[in-house]
Amino acid sequence: MNKYLAFFLFSLFLAGCSNNIIFEPNELPDGHIGQEYYVPITISGGTGPVVDLSYEIHPSNSGLKLVFSKKKYYTKYIYNNFTIQGKPKSQGVITISIRGGVVASAGQDFERKYEVNVLK
Question: Would you indicate the residue range of the signal peptide (predicted)?
Answer without folding.
Answer: 1-20
